[in-house]
Amino acid sequence: MAKAARSDPPPLAGLREEIVVWEILVRLPPKALIRCRAVCRSWRRQLASAAFLLRHHRHQRSLPLVTGYKYGGSTYQDILALDRRAADPAAQLTPVARLDDGTLWIDASCDGILVLSVYGLYFSVLNPVTGQKASLPLICGFSLLGFYRHRPSGEYRLLLHRGQELMNEDLIPGARDDYYVFALGGDLPRCIGRPAMPPCHSTPVLVHGCLHWDPVKQQSGGMIAVFDTAAESFRRMRAPNVLNPCLFEMDGTLGMYTCNDGELRRVDIWVLQDYEREVWEFKYQVELPMAEIRQKFDVCERWSTMVVAEEADVLVLVHCERFLLHVDTEGRLRASFHRDGQGLMTSPHMLKQSLVRHAFFT
Q: Are 238 and 223 contacting, i.e. CB atoms less than 8 angstroms apart?
């Protein structure tokens, strides 16, 4: 039987409990914070309050996600967070949760909540820290385009596209190719019509309260589909007219990269300097360290490149099966990651871990 938490306050070396709780404990990672609840009744009460959990979530860093799968036939997969600030290099690829179903796919991430799917048809939501999970049968058959918090209502909502026959076809009004929003824990998806320029099916980037999808080439140049998550309406914005561009979030604004030399030897990176005026600046040209990459990937014929930002620092991630390399913007190889017996797969999603409770998990 577990011991009850002590009723007497812990020794704090003269520090006021308010400072310890709201300035020190609030910055701990979730697993360490959960252990602290057992120290005394006062901490258990305060560390479980809604106000504390929300502030604790705001202090967590947003980290790139990587998936580890059983090499040679997946029966499970691990959700890993890439934390390059970890003092121990072996801990920079940190396990967050394990998915027992190897067919699950991470489709979206927002405020510590993941949207998972099986073959892009059967959806569920998961908090990988707490293990809470809920299925979403009402949206079976929709295509998921985005996941966001609707600030006016506080609801977490999904942006959906009706591109095929639905499992609940007769229950949901609207027509083929319409777009919908669905509130987690709510009723049926709500039709919002069709945008003038439909977004491409890439992972959107959330900045300035809007979702942004990878640019598409048009006669007037590159164009980004934008969805305002408060007004729940679409618009467009300009982007550099380059080949196969991908967006990422970079210190509160949009970044964009492309590997346009055909052999993944060089990565070009832009940043949106003025969001309102849609002014972009060419920021980095990263020449990849090909000799070191080939040395690591001597048995790999193909590799992929992705750019992510951890706060203000830009990371170029080079991936091939069991290995993941971190290259900086100067083209220097900074770290190499692998897990024994597992393959690794990069993800366009970020995770900001959370212990905040949500009614849609009940």
A: yes
